[in-house]
């Protein structure tokens, strides 16, 4: 292990994770493609330790720490949330941990082999949580219908690369999935406290498919990954709907909210942004230092 990584918050806040990681390295799993890992908030998650997301969870017991911490601080008990691009459900588990008395989580994952693990994890959490899990095997976009999804040459080593964008590699795989607009799935009574959005470049399409929800203020917080520079199309759309935007980064003493046009530094995590309709609430929730999701 790179010694500089020992100072990561995931190890500083949970030093026992180093011993757990060392133990897994020494033990050869009986099923090398399946491993159940305990998350810091007490839920188990089944991962494939051979691929990048699974390896990160095994090593750190946490994934994309600024996103995890943002969800942890902003979700309120009893709310409805959505995990769009849920993969195996790690961020869904974070939301569930913040809904101890009940709430609803919609988890969207269209890639069949990933969705199978997501469903397995949701089934494992259901007896432990009062949350209502709504599994959705569709892809969200700006229209109801079908669309091609492309798996890059990195799949299955990196199972987080499914995209509407074509990969010209000879080893890429393409298949059709059903697409839905979030607006078409929600009647006027549905309000989301928070949605997490990680859809490999289709963020603007998903947001355009949620125009009514955004326009009427029925989504309070949106935490999303965006690799295009400021101001990306997704950001312009959110600004037009009256959202305040920040870039969320890993600070020295916890998460930091920066201007959305802040230049990225040497970051450990993907570029993460937060859009909110409740600025004062967000600033109050981020005032405390530390990584609450890790208990430190």
Q: Your description of this structure?
A:
The protein is α/β, with parallel strands linked by helices and 296 residues long. The chain has a single domain, classed as Vaccinia Virus protein VP39 (Rossmann fold), CATH 3.40.50.150. Helix content is 29%, strand content 25%. It has an 8-stranded mixed beta sheet with strand order 5-4-3-9-10-13-11-12. Strands 6-8-7 form a 3-stranded mixed beta sheet. A hairpin with a 2-residue loop joins strand 11 and strand 12. It starts with 8 loop residues before the first helix and ends in an 11-residue tail after the last helix. The mean pLDDT is 89.
CATH superfamily: Vaccinia Virus protein VP39
CATH class: Alpha Beta
Radius of gyration: 18 Å
The largest sheet, given as strand count, sense and whether it forms a barrel, is: 8 strands, mixed
How do the strands of the widest beta sheet line up side by side?
5-4-3-9-10-13-11-12
Structural class based on helices, strands and sheet pairing: alpha/beta
Q: Report the helical percentage.
A: 25-40%
CATH architecture heading: 3-Layer(aba) Sandwich
Number of strands: 13
The number of helical elements comes to 11
Q: Quote the beta fraction.
A: 15-25%
Contiguous uncertain segments of 5+ residues: none
> Whole-Å distance between the termini?
23 Å
Report the average pLDDT across residues. 89
The rough form would be described as globular
Fold-level CATH name: Rossmann fold
For the record, the count of structural domains works out to 1
Order of helices and strands: HHEEHHEHEHEEEEHEHHEHEEEH
């Amino acid at each position: 292990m790179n010694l500089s990584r020992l100072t990561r918050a995931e190890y500083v806040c949970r030093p026992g994770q180093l011993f757990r990681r060392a133990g897994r390295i020494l033990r050869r799993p009986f099923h090398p493609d399946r491993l159940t890992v305990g998350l810091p908030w007490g839920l188990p998650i089944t991962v494939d330790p051979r691929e990048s997301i699974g390896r990160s969870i095994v090593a750190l017991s946490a994934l994309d720490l600024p996103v995890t911490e943002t969800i942890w601080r902003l979700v309120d008990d009893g709310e409805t949330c959505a995990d769009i691009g849920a993969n195996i459900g790690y961020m869904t588990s974070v939301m569930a941990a913040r809904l101890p008395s009940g709430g609803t989580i919609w988890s969207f994952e269209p890639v069949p082999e990933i969705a199978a693990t997501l469903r397995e994890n949701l089934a494992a959490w259901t007896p432990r949580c009062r949350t209502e899990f709504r599994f959705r095997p569709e892809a969200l976009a700006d229209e109801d219908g079908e669309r091609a999804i492309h798996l890059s040459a990195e799949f299955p080593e990196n199972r987080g690369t499914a995209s509407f964008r074509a990969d010209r590699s000879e080893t890429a795989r393409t298949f059709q999935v059903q697409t839905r607009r979030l607006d078409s799935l929600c009647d006027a009574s549905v309000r989301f406290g928070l949605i997490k959005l990680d859809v490999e470049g289709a963020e603007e399409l998903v947001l355009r498919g949620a125009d009514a929800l955004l326009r009427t203020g029925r989504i309070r917080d949106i935490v999303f990954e965006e690799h295009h520079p400021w101001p990306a199309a997704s950001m312009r759309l959110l600004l037009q709907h009256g959202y305040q935007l920040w870039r969320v980064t890993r600070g020295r003493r916890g998460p930091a909210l920066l201007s959305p046009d802040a230049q990225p530094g040497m970051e450990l995590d993907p570029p993460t942004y937060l859009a909110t309709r409740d600025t004062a609430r967000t600033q109050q929730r981020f005032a405390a230092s530390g990584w609450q999701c890790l208990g430190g």
